[in-house]
Amino acid sequence: MNSLNSEAFVLFGQHILWSDMIGNILGLIGLALGWRRNLWSWPVQFASGLILFGAFYGHLTGSAGKQAVVMVVALYGWWQWNRNKGAAGDGHIAPRFATWRERGAMIGAAAVGTVAVALLFKAYPSLSWDPWPDAYIFVGTVVAMYAQARGMVEFWFAWLLVDLVGVPLNFANGYAFSGFVYVIYGALVLWGMRDWWLRSRDGARPVLEGAPA
């Protein structure tokens, strides 16, 4: 893992680490596979979390902890999508909008979780350089991945909200490649959101009796 934490190149005055680059490229691929509702999205996200865990461990313990949680949620997502991969009739999961109860639960969990994690980071400063935004990204990532595991269109909205803070935070902490990748995440999220939104509407349309399926 030491070789992965070595410098790959310098971009716009920012030192790019191999681990930062590889982990975030895998994360980007995982999100693209998630857009296509491909089951391999989860192993790729797990691998991304594993590499980024190694990148952060030892000096950004809070970020390393986030990657550990990401790996756990990736295993949950793999299990969920395996259970529901035939729901859309094309061998994949069927995207849907969350119910108002589910939305309320996720918003409440995100708010409470962000406050709790931020207070933890503030109590132990070695865990994070920026407790509140780091906690926001930590909890927002977990909420987004949970919504993805459940096939909810809202997972794309959650990723957009994470991106709004993730881009400047990664640049500020010296993880330039993470910042650049978060910008690409934003564009990919918009396309993925449109695709899942349309698919969820198609899935909700009733089939008329006698009409072709």
UniProtKB/TrEMBL annotation:
Places the protein is found: Cell membrane
Membrane topology of the entry: Multi-pass membrane protein
Chain ranges passing through the membrane: 16-35, 42-60, 105-124, 136-162, 174-193
Main location per the UniProt record: membrane
Keywords tagged on the record: Cell membrane, Membrane, Transmembrane, Transmembrane helix, Transport
Pfam families: NMN_transporter
Alphabetized InterPro entries for the sequence: NMN_transpt_PnuC
Family named by the database record: Belongs to the nicotinamide ribonucleoside (NR) uptake permease (TC 4.B.1) family.
Official protein name in the record: Nicotinamide mononucleotide transporter
Species this chain originates from: Streptomyces pseudovenezuelae
